Amino acid sequence: MTDIIQQLIDGLGRGSGYALLALGLAIIFGVMHLVNFAHGEVITVSAYVSYWLAIHGTSWWLIALAALVTSTLAAVVIEFVAFRRVRGAEDFTMLLTSFGVAIVVRAGFSMWVSTKPRQFDKPGWIFNTVRVFGISLEIYDLIVIGVTAVTLAAVAYLLRRTMFGVALRAAAEDFDAARLMGIRANRVISGAFALSGLLAGVAAVMILMRRGQAEPGMGLDILLPGVLAAVIGGLGSLSGAVLGGFALGLAEVMVRAWILPEGLTGLTDGVVFALIAVLFIFRPEGFIRVGHAERV
Amino acid sequence: MSDQSRYLRAIAGAMVLFVLLVGGGLLYAASGGGSRDILVTQMLINTIIVLGLQLFIGNTGILSFGHTAFGTFAGYSVAVLTMPVSRKMAQIPDAPFGVAGVHLHPLVATGVGILVALLVGVLVGLALTRSGAKSGAVAATIITLALLFVVHEVSLNWTDLTDGGGGLGFIPRLRGRFWIYLVLALSLVGTRLFSEIRVGRWNKAAREDDIAAGAVGINLVPPQTIALLASVVIIAVGASLRVQSLGSMTPVFFYFDYTLLTLAMLIVGGRKGVTGAVLGVVVITVGNEFTRYLAGGDVNVPGLGWLLRPNLSLLFLGGAMLLFMLMRPEGIIPSGEIDQLAGRFRPRIADDPPPTVPAIEPTEQRVPDGPALVVHDVGVQFGGFRALAGVDMTARPGEIVGLIGPNGAGKTTLLNIITGVVEPTTGSIRLGDRDLTDLPPHEIARAGLARTFQNLRLFGGLPVRENVAVAAMAGERYRGDRPRIDVDVLVAMAGLWNQRHRPAADLDYGSQRRLELARAAAMSPTLLLLDEPTSGMSDEESAVMIGHVRDTASRLRAGVIVIDHDLHFITNVCDRIYVLDHGRIIAEGTPAEIQRNPKVIEAYLGTRAVS
Predict the structure, then answer these.
(1) What is the pLDDT of residues B259-289, one digit of tens each?
(2) A267 in a domain, yes or no?
(3) Which terminal residue of chain B, N or C, has fewer Cβ atoms less than 10 Å from its own Cβ?
(4) Are the beta carbons of A93 and B322 separated by less than 8 Å?
(5) What ipTM did this prediction achieve?
(6) Are B124 and A278 in contact (CB < 8 Å)?
(7) Looking at A210-224, B112-126, B383-397, B593-607, which range is the least confident one?
(8) At what angle do helices B256-269 and B34-53 cross, to 10 degrees?
(9) Is B203 inside any structural domain?
């Protein structure tokens, strides 16, 4: 029993990061029908800023704040520089634009910093364990789950109760109609990117606390489970993205703990991928179907 | 042009590309040392892989990051099966399936590699085509990206078979370029022919508009699956050659960097054609080598030292991809092939004359036949909005039925339900004794219902004639027993003969409407369903359209259901009219009866006009 609970918490911890990334991706997909492969680069940029601050002896609280600000700004800048020019283009063009941005960011850090990972100190206390009802839990996992819960609640409030949230959801439902109602496209899209960048920033802080390193190619590696989660959940569905994130985290933990034999845990990703492929065969639209308002 | 001469021309074009590529490579290699020789070998092998990518991505329009992952499967199969047994006993003695003790000829090993890759291709293909066909290509792209990452993970961690990151060596090397030339030539011919055969052309139609493709009877899944498996075979063979030419195999051989390189080649050159893909290989190879040379430390340009650093080629590849997407998303050669160049410079005067439209048989001989369409009690609800309720409607063989009603009455929704695009909440649709209610759009099209779209859904990037020809292929295959109008005659009847080679998207509005009618007619339907065929047309054009609709229908011995706002048009062309208002049928009758019906006058002109 305690074993199951421990795995469950482990799975929720993993899923938290996926859910935050997937939610950011779903928000962007909603306003411009783009799956943003450059979303992970926001984390790469934050990681290098954190690295620079850490080696100059900045405290972790300030680093976390800086990572949030950097992610948000980076997302807005990327939209302004690249995506604004391909707005409304074919899916194919937009996908490759975001991929191109991801490569250029990776190339930039490879050329002007190093291809080798840059290490910096992690806050040591977060890896202490506490015992709750006979279950030993890492403080890190508790922080991650707690912060994610608060963040998701705040986003839910923002989307439901504020003018910006309503505009965003309206734009996601039918962009042209929203514009006719007087919603300003540039502002909503910039806002969507800022929000998704902020969510990525929260994920970035969690990841950096655990890894304590910056690397040019980290963006796509980190992003992939987030993208998968968004697709599993039903592309464009915000709650689906969050659901997909947690489902993916739990699936990974369960496959490793209960399905694969001891020596083969390195194949976890392979098994999870096969499961996802099977899911797509039976439910191609993901958990939550989003009614595409395409007029025929 | 006949099919045979199309194929011959395509093969000739592929051979020209082969000669240019190999000739250019040999000339370059002859001018320098051994490193140039290796570079040319790698370029030729890369061309094979890029052709594999082109076959799938170019024809289906689905972006795939994962195709190189199929190279990993083939690469490891070849590596494991051709390594000397003594090496395997030292490096991977516990390899599964007892492969450590097996030693195969490279040809046999390549065959096994193809089979392994195909096996994975079938599983991935199922997921890919299902999600690709249903919700746009984006989900499919993500599946392929995940495949790329997962295959890398697995090949790193399945050390019993792959020996992990260090990889496998001592693979017997290829001698000479015979096999490379042979596979390259076959891949060029194969990919070039693929875009000319039915499966390829149907893929391209679906790429341009999947809903319109369904409406002409194309089921997306088989063509997309065939394209996927064919591309997997080409990539598996290319990967086998790459591994044998390098003599080793590691998890990163067919991973991110190689995916980026080959994708950049395809995208920059022009993904929609073989010629573009080959040009892209050359351009990116040259650019990549040049940036490596610049960043290699041997070059010193004052003021540019900050740029000429290691990994400049990564910036080049990413930057090239990004800039092309922003400036020229279709690549250097957006459409067309080398063998079509000749036609472009041919003077206009030498154009073939249009075919003579055969005279139509006298009316009494035109016996309309085919089953009747019966719509019974159809209703549909979108959320809380009841768009249609209790709709009954019949279209007898050869009858021209009009459907009129104010904006938002539910006319197009009814048409979408009949053709399977929208699922009804209640009711049934039958054609003769066949129940169409739950069939997908392509099955309904094959059953004999062909439609046009209010918002125009042509295969915009394809030539005008090809729009009709694609539908005619489906008509021939699924509706061979019905009267047929030749493709060229249909194009001429629509008045588009002189524009038949232009992309459909370039036509003016009226021409696009006529082309949609021609495309629907090419299906040899029993019933034509036309959604506002005269919308946006001038009075003159509308008058021509009336004659055109009657003429086409009687040649096909087909009935017509036509939606329009234009009361004049409807009363002129129809035998019987249904009037729809707020989702219900409020009147039915001959044009004369409808014009006198007070309910109709009220719906159309408001209550005051009645009193």
Answers:
(1) 999 999 999 999 999 999 999 999 999 999 9
(2) no
(3) C
(4) no
(5) 0.91
(6) no
(7) B593-607
(8) 70
(9) yes
